[in-house]
């Protein structure tokens, strides 16, 4: 169950409203790297967590934090939209180039939301909840969370570099710090679950002698000229899960040309196929 | 540039066609954990790779492999759909319960594709390319790939457990082995890039003294009763990136209630808001 | 800012797990009438609320409640999925009709989520955040909320009628009661804002003498035979906003056939169009 | 069945073509508040209407009107796109700032549609038919229609305020008037069905003594500090449906921490969860 | 402008309601081969038609017809849903296998639409208006329409083969006949525009001497072993547009390995890439 | 199975990077007329091809070619993004108008992809795999491919006309030539399958005496005033499939007003409908 106190987790202030930066910030709300995504991802992972409850608690606690981040960013978007022109005339008065501000905004922030934030990305594409990764496998979930926080921090850094508004830089410096922690905390959860050797290959509950082990640690080459693919840590030495030895192998097809044969009559095919 | 030889990478054989299993296999083609996703993700990551070219080659080489996996699975779907009823009557003849097979299929596999595979998931939802994570940050990309292969192998294991067709089990045992390798190879790429300490927090090009470091390694608590959140490896000790020390802290809001003030006249608000 | 106590708002208990009912319940999570929708809608409306702050507080307070409803329903889905078959064989053992349970489930609940809830509807379609209506106009928002709670309660009633599990009926009776309140509370907010006469037509900030008033209260007929359209409260008498008198009028086109003329050279048209 | 006369319902004229305004107008075609939405919503509601046929007729008649509105707006978009630059050079010749017009347009209007309208919103996002609310409950449908016309008129007002083209203002003044009528006509339909007391809570066919009535008219508080939530018409007095008395109550969880227990073996979980 | 007479274009009758067939029919409403698609596609093509107006009229006239087809199919879906069980108990009473009918239905037809049609496909996926192809090029549009009617008639034939209800077979025989005509009428429009030689390659307004003509009629081979690709009418002889001679050529890359070089500092890349 | 050589099919060079043109090129990658679409469409058609295998080979061979086109265009996007401003300040330094370049870009190309290509269209909308038409009917598929190449070449021509960069014009001239060939090759496949008379109406496996032949070649008029619709090649003369004679007929409804009667109790309708 959730509670609110209507306050912002961290102060949000905008010295010079910038409607284009409002558009950029939308990516941090409704983009695939954004806060709606992480809030809902941790929430759904928590709801489906089986096994030791402390992982459920870690996830739900962090979901609560991320809800507060959405609130901060939505406030930042609204504040940046203050001063956006509402008409071609108003725009022309403030700026010699007709359309440069309106044209650079997400028009839906004005037309659909009346100068407020929306759960859309920086190009106005609504967030799609298929991006909520909650697999029922705790290690896969934690790995997905490290990914989400890595792209999330990368986005926050790009936004930080884009603006020179001191209020926005301050808010983003806080969010970047939190992403640092969240990357670390989900790696720590993986560590607590046994680290690379204890968890990988995910899922670790499948007996590896049932997979086709000849190919389990082979770096296969698909170069047209039959040459070896580019070498690296992945092509020789002990595998990262400690359970195999990397090899390299130029691959040849093991199967034949597939042939589905004739189409069934009455299946809507052409008569030439039947 | 790409080439084909029209052959299957690994043999695909179905002893007892099962239209419901065809539907389940669709998840491995067009699901978010599926092969279209990884093929296109590695492809786009390769196309945008900057820096040492061997990572580009690793990605493009693996993309070529994954294209072949789609081909295998699409063949498996078509073979499992052989024998699907084309009509209510045909179904009733083979099975006393009208609708049990047709009702359990993805009807689009019949109605739209004429008993062939489609780039949709097991509930008939088309794959959406927003799931292609290609961030321009090589470590974030590799982390995303470990995630993709972890959920991918989890899915393949669930499919393996669901069927008892020897041909399908053989094919899935091969795909599970390849996912084992791919989890390992992308972890190896991260290792080659410097491992956790060399890469995290991602992006490592942002000077950490510009983030609000007071919060960089603090596990913050958002429990309604003000208690500490559940403890674990993430709440004390050295951080996973080796750059900080985990602490725990019950959080209180640092900001005030946000107040956006009045709406602008002519912004389409109610007069009560202006 | 948000807080959690990890507890369920209301008890969730399932006496006889039913994977098909789990699928039906998904509509109440990720359907357009579902709880993710209302939680996020009230949240975004609150974040963009301008004018008297008590509406912001009403919205954010109710958003907190709805987050707890998602949690309840996600738990109910997971509990109903206990006992779902993991394989064709397991299914065949418990039930003479191969595929009747697996075929009736959302397969993604098993394949993607490992027997847990997802933010998708009862056909496995992910929730799309374009359904978050937050218009920046407080009366339009409140009207949208009455709509959301009306379709929400209709859905909850259909689910209540579908099941005979006492635990599920108890949980749904609670949710139905809350939808009763929420319909009423958002109508009350409209009342406090001035009711039909004070708010409509929305937005009330546009001077009505600037609209083409000849058509503002006319029920126009588009019947092919030129007859009057079906009469009702909408075709005569005082309008609901108290600002006009309903009339009925058979409509004839006031414009001509549109003619866009020739296509521009170099616009990619056929030469026959240029 | 439908008929056409190829004429515009109301004259559409553009004095000064403005490609950015074409983009804004797209919201009124393919946005969630747009005309495709209302045309298709009333159409599908009509097709599913059960009970007194006059509501079906009202809906289908209005659907016919709305189809004509799409036609008007599509013509307006095409006329505003006349004069859009087809190349960087053409643009540079007319305007000192390279890219300001092309950059502000929906490029798909040029690249995909050859300077014509598309069923997309002002950011180029295609309309998604999940926004067609047709619930099978006539009162819920009418409420949804009041909502659609409220956000529709809000959008039309914003567009009116954005342009100073006399032709466009004239067209929009007509559309705003029609939205005034449509808000009123659907409220009138609700009135004819019995008004707030006759219809609410929706659906009114569910016996209220089967809901958990203790919570049916209680305004529940979810404030972190346990204080009462903000008061208003919704917190005391007779409820809007006339069937209860509003109360206020600070809420405490009635359920416990959910515990899903162990994961099933073979469900693809980690062995630590099993 | 559009008019309605509320009548069905062709009689719709269902002798034995079948909820699973209702689900199948949904594909013909909201599938990519369905009637919403063609109605809206011809409508938008008409709205954007430049050049000879008779093509606009052909398109708008056919759009009106297709709207009537949606109406027929929506009625057919609702009639097939009569008799669907509303509860697990009701189902169990009529059918020994719990869940076989409910599990085979689109649950949204019941839960969201109250036993009515929706603009979704046979798996419950909503129609997405990006499928409206209206290119601004009249020949491309007509070709797209032949395609739409080809997949549309294929779908209608599959539905005809699936059912043995005489009323449904009669309705589908009518729709199949109309698709026959529509395939022919759009081919006739292409013929009137000059046929293959007059129209192809589309767009015919681009001077072919500006394309890289060495490759304009060459069938290029991408076989891994460097062999020629499979021969056919496409590999030698005069081209179908009459403007070239087909040749076959094994292809070798003309470009080098792409190299994007280093990432820009401050672009959010890893320091290893900069 | 697929192979790569990491080389570009054709040289890609950009003399003057232009971030707005990068955005336009995105349409050729992730737009519905783009290369992801054709690559995946031919790939899935090949995987489901039944009947003569040479069509499968034609399709898979061309899929391999199109994968190389994505690679070229993704490289072109990245090269055009070189020099995009990373901040408001950087932009302001190079250009007097703040926001004109950043505002005209797809911001996701910067924020999500770090100056690289994405599988999205020119407005940042991700490609949706429902656009992969693979019908199981070989003639319908080939017709769909002619359509795809027609809109594809139209798009390439528009892009060619938009830029004056010699490198980009050279690349596009190559792609336009390939689209010329692909239009021709798929028409040739139709010819080899028997041409219009041998294939149409599609599917040709349905006995035409089972369709309602009275309407199979009639151009039906839906003009409101009962006049004949606009005449053309489609209204008289032999039909294009050679199997009928075109006629024209003003249409009157053959069905009655539909009446679904009362709603079922417990179906969630209002009591007024029951």
UniProtKB/TrEMBL annotation, chains A, B, C, D, E, F:
Superkingdom in the source lineage: Bacteria
Organismal lineage: Bacteria, Pseudomonadati, Pseudomonadota, Alphaproteobacteria, Rhodobacterales
InterPro entries per UniProt: Ferritin-like, Ferritin-like_SF, Mn_catalase, Mn_catalase_dom
Protein name (Swiss-Prot/TrEMBL): Manganese catalase family protein
Family classification: Belongs to the manganese catalase family.
Organism in which the protein naturally occurs: Paracoccus rhizosphaerae
Region (Disordered) residue spans: 227-274
